[in-house]
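User: Can you recover a sequence for this backbone? Please restate the input before giving your answer.

Assistant: Of course. Working from this structure:
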C-alpha cells in the first residue's frame, strides 16, 4: 500500500454517518507516458482528475468533463481501468466534515490538447512518471495507483 490511509477511512466509516456518491476518475497519460495529476485545493493532496457524476451524464462523459474542468486538458477515453467501491479505501471525509462512500469507475485515457486553466478545486496540475509520484496522495486514489504501478490486469473490480 502507498500509505496507511485505507485503515483510517474504514475506521471513520464505522463511526460516522456518510452518503453514497457515484464518482469517476481518469488514468490519463501523455505522449511520454506521464500520468496527469491534480493537487486538490481542499487538502493539498495529489490525485487523479475526476469527480461526481451529474444527473443525465454517463460515467465516461463525467470523466471527460471533470478532467477538462480540473486540469484544462482534453482527453480521449481509451478504456476501462476499473471499478472501485471497497469501503476500506473508498470512504472519504472532506476537511469540512462531509463523509462519502465513493462508488467509482476509473477510465484510461490519452491526453490530447490543453484548452484552458484548472478550476478553483485545484491548486496545481502536473505530469508525473508513474514510478515517481508526488506526495501526499489522495487516499481514495491509492488503490488505483497501486494497481497502475503493479500493472494489474484490467479492468480491476475492487
Amino acid at each position: 500500500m502507498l500509505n496507511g490511509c485505507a485503515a483510517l477511512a474504514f475506521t471513520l466509516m464505522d463511526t460516522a454517518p456518510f452518503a453514497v456518491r457515484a464518482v469517476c476518475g481518469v488514468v490519463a497519460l501523455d505522449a511520454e507516458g506521464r500520468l496527469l495529476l491534480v493537487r486538490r485545493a481542499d487538502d493539498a493532496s495529489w490525485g487523479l482528475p475526476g469527480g461526481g457524476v451529474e444527473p443525465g451524464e454517463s460515467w465516461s462523459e463525467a470523466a471527460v468533463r471533470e478532467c477538462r474542468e480540473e486540469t484544462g486538458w482534453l482527453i480521449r477515453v481509451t478504456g476501462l481501468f476499473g471499478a472501485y467501491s471497497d469501503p476500506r479505501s473508498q470512504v472519504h471525509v472532506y476537511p469540512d466534515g462531509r463523509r462519502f462512500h465513493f462508488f467509482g469507475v476509473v477510465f484510461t485515457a490519452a491526453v490530447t490538447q490543453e484548452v484552458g486553466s484548472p478550476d478553483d478545486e485545484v491548486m496545481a496540475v502536473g505530469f508525473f512518471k508513474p514510478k515517481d509520484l508526488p506526495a501526499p496522495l489522495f487516499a481514495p486514489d491509492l488503490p488505483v495507483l497501486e494497481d497502475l504501478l503493479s500493472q494489474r490486469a484490467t479492468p480491476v473490480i475492487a
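That completes the design. The first helix runs from residue 5 to 15.
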